[in-house]
């Protein structure tokens, strides 16, 4: 299945959450109305399977993952010691594209994925162009010197960094693995795990 490249407002309304990484007055107004002519009439109670599927789709939309990528990630954390939901969030948050966004180098996760893919990101002093690369504790992330000159300060940079990150002289560092309490995610990890445990 190809990555979704259509209108982001449509995707946000379909999932019922803001996947744009920024607030928009028009989106906030229509967020809970499904897209399409009959959007207002199509609201219905979901079955247990439907709820699990919806949460899985939301997580994929937020982090921009394809089904195969997401399924492999969930299966991977299920084999590890620890609380599966917490491990899932930690792995999603430490993807290189997400870290670039969290450090404020990009305005959105879509833009951060593009930066990584186009070779504008330096990890531990070396260029890395794999958005799904799992950043490890102690790794440093920065923009290439050329990209740093062109960059405009983002709204994300004006916000306080999350507790597991530090940033000094435009170089970000992962100090520890993220915990569930560090980030607010608009989906239920337990329902996602149940979906893949069927």
SSE blueprint:
Elements: H1 8-15, H2 25-30, H3 48-63, H4 67-78, H5 84-93, H6 96-102, H7 109-117, E1 121-123, E2 126-127, E3 140-143, H8 145-150, H9 155-158, E4 165-168, E5 171-174, H10 189-196
Antiparallel strand pairs: 1-2, 1-3, 3-5, 4-5
Q: Over all CA atoms, what is the radius of gyration?
A: 17 Å
Distance between the termini: 22 Å
Mean pLDDT: 85
- Order of strands, widest sheet: 2-1-3-5-4
Main beta-sheet annotation? 5 strands, antiparallel
Q: Could you name the CATH class of the largest domain?
A: Alpha Beta
CATH topology heading of the largest domain = Structural Genomics Hypothetical 15.5 Kd Protein In mrcA-pckA Intergenic Region, Chain A
Structural class: alpha+beta
Assign an overall shape: globular
Number of strands: 5
* SSE order: HHHHHHHEEEHHEEH
**Annotated CATH homologous superfamily of the largest domain:** RNA-binding S4 domain
Q: Low-confidence stretches at least 5 residues in length (pLDDT < 50)?
A: none
Helix content: 40-55%
Tally of individual domains: 3
Q: What fraction strand?
A: 5-15%
Per DSSP, the total helix count is 10
Label the CATH architecture of the largest domain: Roll
